[in-house]
Task: structure prediction
Amino acid sequence: MIKDNQRYLNRLHVVVDAVVTIISYIAAWWLRIVVFQKPGEGTLEPKVYFAALLIIVPFYVAMYSALNLYKSKRYSSAKREFFDIIRANLIGLLIFFVALYIINEPDFSRSVVFIFCIINVALTILVRKGIRVFLRQIRKKGYNVKYIVLVGYSRAAEEYVDRILANPQWGYVVRGILDDHIPAGTLYRGVKVVGRVDNLYYILPENKLDEIAITLSLEDYDRLEEIVGLCEKSGVHTKFIPDYNSVIPSRPYTEDLSGLPVINIRRVPLTNTLNWIVKRGVDIIGSCFALIIFSPIMLIATIAIKASGDGPVIFKQERVGLHNKTFQMYKFRTMEVQKPQEESKAWTVKNDPRVTKIGKLLRRTSMDELPQFFNILKGDMSLVGPRPERPVFVDKFKEEIPRYMIKHQVRPGLTGWAQVNGYRGDTSIRKRIDCDIYYIENWTFGFDIKILFMTIFKGFINKNAY
Result:
């Protein structure tokens, strides 16, 4: 019989979370009401506090379930789980306070609720960490593992094997690969091609597999429906890993057109009107605030540039922005005045003789970018987004680098995910584009705030700026 212990683990997990919630609440009540209660301070009877557990426990279990905290830990990220636990408890804290306000219960200690939130977050994270360690250890000993066969040898199959071998804590053992084109006995990282696809007719009735992963190559997709039907008929858990991940992103946006599933090739959250309004509002407020804060530095830079020689203070350069439209990007002039055709030939290189003394300082500290706050106010740019490039390089890179032009589906930014990860100046364009696409597909307001904070703490000094 095919093993499927996940539902039993989930039920046990619900019980554990309920117990942790109860312990955290009792500990919070004890600390605030018993240990730290001030003499003469009024309080409610204990039964009133404990009666609240009848609502708190099922609410928190439901909240954890809504945030997918009961899905299999084979694939789930510990970091994501950590933040989801914090989010659930902050939501619970807010709702608890609102409920107390609505029922008008002034004697119910708000401190108990606040302490409960802190203890529950810490204890839940600690317990779940312990569960992860326990599962990892028993899987290393050969328990709670899942045996899987891959149907089809393809790029998707190789990438899936790579990830399984790189994450032994998932507890997967690949028994082999079935394929009609690759000879039996062929090895990929220790995983053997064990036969043809039709061998499924003999393998599935034995009920010795936990999962089937369909990893067919594109040219074999005519057999997909047949294989899915065969696997489902046997009752084995089946997953499909498409061989076109270079085209479709890891988090595709799907639509339902009267029962017809439609997959959008690129998920761009900023095409949502509300998201666009929020981001634009933050850009306007943030750029105004930044111009006020940095105005003394900008004044000093203006005086220094003027004193260093002839030429304009502000350097304007054509860049490609949203929807491939060009705009004039502003920077403090950091180089000697050149003819436009000379300036556009190449990037600045190390020890470039064209860079002025004050220009080196401005570039190194990224202060030459400050005038771009005016671009942000105008709507040419955003505080956060892919860095804009010159048209000559856009024409070059779009032919050389796959998916390069995707970056123009959003406004370019003063800073971005690529820049805070070190891809600035003379660094890999391909890795920069990978970061840009990740940002575009995973944009959230919180992600922007994170990038801005990372820019503040480590993004100003640019070791790749020449």
Q: What stands out?
A: The longest helix spans residues 273-307. The chain has a mean pLDDT of 85.
